[in-house]
Amino acid sequence: MIRTFNEQIEAFWRSAKGKSSQKLREELDELLAQRPAGDAVVLFEQASLHDYLGEEAQAVEPYRAAIATGLDPEKLDEARIQLASTLRNLGETGQAVQLLQLIQASSHVYRDAQAFLALALHDAGDHQEALRVALQTLAPTLSLYGRPVHDYAKELAGTI
After folding, report:
1. pLDDT tens-digit profile of 9-53?
2. Structural domains in the chain?
3. 116 contacts: CB under 8 Å, gap ≥ 6
């Protein structure tokens, strides 16, 4: 069965748990050899592996290069979230907030970005805004109390 590159990458990540870092690097390198060196997807996947292995400092530059090189819009927002999370873990909360604020409400990962934005705002000391973002994002998913939670979020923002 012939699988697309994206399907192969998805399979790689699904099977990653429990493998040694050496094995993961070898498998990913083999998959990425199908694409040109310096390709945005190659850079993104390399950065993702660094993150997965707890090598956050090594993930930053490949993420930035992938974003600058030109990912498709779907992967671009994923890369922004992952880079922002990495930057947050490295103490660069201001940069993390800026990146996450670039993700538009129309993005397939907007709610995910809002969760990471709330974390980054909290780490930056802006606890009220972090809570507002979290509540504003959560409100539409609530079955009974969505409207009052939304109103409380607006109150935190001073817009009620």
Report:
1. 999 999 999 999 999 999 999 999 999 988 999 999 999 999 999
2. 5-92 (1.25.40.10)
3. 81, 84, 85, 88, 96, 100
